[in-house]
Design brief:
Rossmann fold, 6-stranded parallel sheet, single chain, 3 domains, thiamine pyrophosphate, transketolase activity, alpha/beta, about 40% helix, EC 2.2.1.1
């Protein structure tokens, strides 16, 4: 590995990658051929000399991880997949195991940091003298656009602090973005920026053809154990095409005559699409053989580890499988209505404290709000470089700093690695900062748990800038995302129960600052269905459906209405996503026909028409003041909701028409 030995197949393999990238984009009539064509040499050197992967087993745990942060490099995925013996299908990308790839620029950079964090953590937990089981590297390809994005800067800053020597970023410095030359907007000194972050900074001035220099830089990067490395690789975008070096080749297919000329220039048949010379196939078959041999050696080491460390071996295999320990649910706190009222953020802390001993795969953290989010389990050690004296890599709590977006992207990478369930924390309002990362959690199926406290006007004096109004409906509208707003202790335990069982769904736990009473009818089992009846009456005149801190207010209002002879039910709906997955019969029993349904929530009413006939909430921004006064200002009190409820019940009774549940659809598409 120390010196570069040329192979006869190098030039033809690189030419093949460039031609295939042009063919793939042309065939799709959409895409970005330029970056893959420019990065073909480094991709070839990386895979032919360094990457430890076994194409026959994409789940080999100690494989090197590869991230394409520059989302325009999809063509490169297809090409590498094809050369390693897989058909050109997006469904098969994971068979080749490009770990994550992202459309939004910069996200993959954060994912790469997360993958490196996960490796460092699991190595510290499971490696033993003579058993260097978990020692893979994470390689990230990033472009100019990635490094312009704030999420990459946040992640890079933290990676430097964490001294992640297992992370190598290859920066494709081709000076082109969609608007043209980066001189119009991006003129900073990237090397100096990353040096200030605490990274090792290397550069290759000729990334188009200087394979020995590329090889040397990667070797040097792997030798640095206490710093992440960024290699600035100067390339020519669209190398070989008539438009090379211009933004014209950035995001559009090459014309047919350009592709033919390109192939002729590289000695490939101009009239054949997706042509791969036998020398290239043979070279990439050797990569597969090398990977299979490396995995066999690793499996042998793992077997010996099992003989010497049977408990650690069993635990590692469990964590790799993703299975949770038997009976872990029994550690969830259970509450009675007579238990004291507590903020749901405190209930979350109690739950995490109970779960930490039985779920060592939990790796938590907060964006500089630990004392407010209550996310650090007492006695836990920080995840920190040992040299800092602040913790060690076996630690289970990450200090993310004020980097919400970077935190979310890093958490996605941690989950993508395997063996870890990440939870992260901030105020609910500031999850909006991380919306791009949350969206990719949901899209990619990353099990990331967000502990989002201070979730309404109930946070009080911080006022409208901190009080989330529209945040809930934003995330409730997101596919494959469970947004929980628990009303008491059992509902909080239920939120964690479902979140931890949902291996391909992220969750946001929207938690209160103010104390909430424990409800008489709540149980973990009921709440785990996403919605249930808190107070039941027959022949009702009204149902009030609510979530979180307003459920107790709904119960108070119902008591007043029932005392006046207006029969009122109360429903708690802590998670729309989970409730919507319940059988129709159950959902109709909770939000049944026969009487009007009034929703109550100290947030925007948007979305509630799906579950209620009338809605009561906030029409605009909140206000600053003691939270009780703020609730009074907006009429969210038991007394006022009773008045509103009576008006609703009277209106529908006077109308005389049958009241059908909003869940009943006249027509289903």
């Amino acid at each position: 590995m120390s010196s570069f030995t040329p192979a006869q197949s190098d030039d033809v393999s690189i030419a093949t990658i460039r031609a295939l990238a042009a063919d793939v984009v042309a065939k799709a009539n959409s895409g970005h051929p330029g970056a893959p064509m420019g990065m073909a040499p480094v991709a070839h050197v990386l895979y032919s000399r360094f990457m430890n992967v076994n194409p026959k087993n994409s789940k080999w745990f100690n494989r090197d991880r590869f991230v394409l942060s520059n989302g325009h490099a999809c063509a490169l995925q297809y090409v590498l997949l094809h050369l390693l013996g897989h058909k050109l299908s997006m469904d098969d990308l994971k068979a080749f195991r490009i770990e994550v790839t992202t459309g939004p620029l910069g996200q993959g950079f954060g994912n790469g940091v997360g993958l490196a964090v996960a490796q460092a953590h699991l190595a510290a937990v499971f490696n033993k003298p003579g058993f260097d089981l978990i020692n893979n590297f994470t390689y990230v390809f990033a472009g100019d656009g990635c490094l312009m994005e704030g999420v990459a800067s946040e992640a890079a800053s933290l990676a430097g602090h964490l001294q992640l020597g297992n992370l190598i970023v290859i920066y494709d410095d081709n000076h082109i973005s969609i608007d043209g030359d980066t001189a119009v907007a991006f003129t900073e000194n990237v090397e100096q920026r990353f040096s200030s972050y605490g990274w090792q900074v290397l550069h290759v001035d000729n990334g188009d053809s200087d394979l020995p220099a590329i090889h040397k830089a990667i070797v040097e990067a792997k030798l640095e154990k206490n710093k992440p490395t960024i290699i600035r690789l100067k390339t020519t975008i669209g190398f070989g095409s008539k438009q090379q070096g211009t933004h014209g080749v950035h995001g559009s297919p090459l014309k047919a005559d350009d592709i033919q000329a390109l192939k002729t220039k590289f000695g490939l048949p101009a009239d054949q699409s997706f042509y791969v010379p036998s020398a290239t196939y043979d070279a990439y078959a050797e990569i597969g053989k090398r990977g299979a041999s490396l995995e066999a050696e690793w499996n042998s080491l793992l077997g010996s580890y099992g003989h010497k460390y049977p408990q650690e071996h069993a635990e590692l295999l469990r964590r790799i499988s993703g299975e949770l320990p038997a009976n872990w649910e029994q550690s969830l706190p259970v509450y009675k209505s007579t238990d004291p009222a507590q903020a749901s953020r405190k209930l979350s802390e109690i739950t995490l404290t109970s779960l930490a001993p039985v779920l060592p795969e939990l790796l938590g953290g907060s964006a500089d709000l630990t004392s407010s989010n209550l996310t650090k389990v007492k006695g836990s050690v920080d995840f920190q470089p040992p040299s800092t004296g602040l913790g060690n890599y076996a630690g289970t709590y990450i200090r993310y700093g004020v980097r919400e977006h970077g935190m979310g992207a890093i958490a996605n990478g941690i989950h993508a690695y395997g063996g870890i369930i990440p939870y992260v924390a901030t105020f609910l309002n500031f999850v909006s900062y991380a919306a791009g990362a949350v969206r990719l959690s949901a899209l990619s199926g990353h099990q990331v748990i967000w502990v989002a406290t201070h979730d309404s006007i109930g946070l009080g004096e911080d006022g409208p800038t901190h009080q989330p109004i529209e945040t809930a409906i934003h995330f409730r509208a997101m596919p494959n995302l469970a947004f929980w707003r628990p009303a008491d202790g059992n509902e909080t335990s239920a939120a964690y129960l479902v979140a931890l069982k949902s291996r391909k769904t992220p969750s946001i736990l929207s938690l209160s600052r103010q104390n909430l009473p424990n409800l008489e009818a709540s149980t973990i089992e009921k709440a785990a269905k996403g919605g249930y009846v808190v107070h039941e009456v027959e022949g009702e005149d009204l149902t009030i459906v609510s979530t979180g801190s307003e459920v107790a207010i709904a119960v108070e209002a119902a008591a007043k209405l029932n005392a006046e002879g207006i029969k009122t039910r109360v429903v708690s709906l802590p998670c729309w996503f989970v409730f919507d997955k319940q059988p129709q019969e159950y959902r109709m029993s909770v939000l049944r026909s026969g009487a009007p349904i009034l929703s109550l929530e100290a947030l925007s009413t948007a979305g509630w028409a799906k579950y209620s006939h009338e809605q009561y909430g906030l029409p605009a921004w909140g206000a600053s003041g003691p939270y009780q006064k703020v609730y009074e200002k907006f009429g969210i009190t038991g007394s006022n909701i009773a008045v509103v409820g009576k008006k609703v019940a009277d209106f529908y009774k006077q109308r005389g028409a049958p009241v059908v549940s909003p869940l009943v659809k006249a027509f289903t598409i």
